[in-house]
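fyi for ur records
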Amino acid sequence: MRVDEVTPNVDSAALLAGAQFIDAFRVATARPDLDARHAAEAMVARQPRWIEWLLAMRNFIVAPLGLKTSGAADGAARDMIGIFPVVSETPERLIAGFNDKHLDFRLVVDVASAGAVRSITATTLVLTHNWFGRAYLAVIMPFHRLIVPAMLRKAVG
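which gave:
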């Protein structure tokens, strides 16, 4: 199935004011019952081994630097999709993400209908706070451009 990079169609000021990075990828599906939560859950559930390996390596490297390895807060009950706390949710849009000392991150999963075909769009927004956040973003960007389309394929697979 084909995943296309598309122009982001979100209000970035409302989602993450000052975001310096925004991208979006879209895939079509014929699943009429799919909503944003189920699409997001499918995207993060049972990742391919190469993604699990990259995330484990990332967590190993950043944990000693004091960066979060998950958006789960100690002792706080939160609605989570994988490692991402849910910020807001409607049947058509789920927003997840968290803030860290180097950058703030949001993942927006939109599900829209166009006749018999539905589309799932994953939009990523990032606001960096310092030189480390900018360097981190530069390092992970090539992986991000592989991981998000792979996650979208899982949502329709």
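Residues 131-156 form the longest helix (26 residues). thats all i got for now
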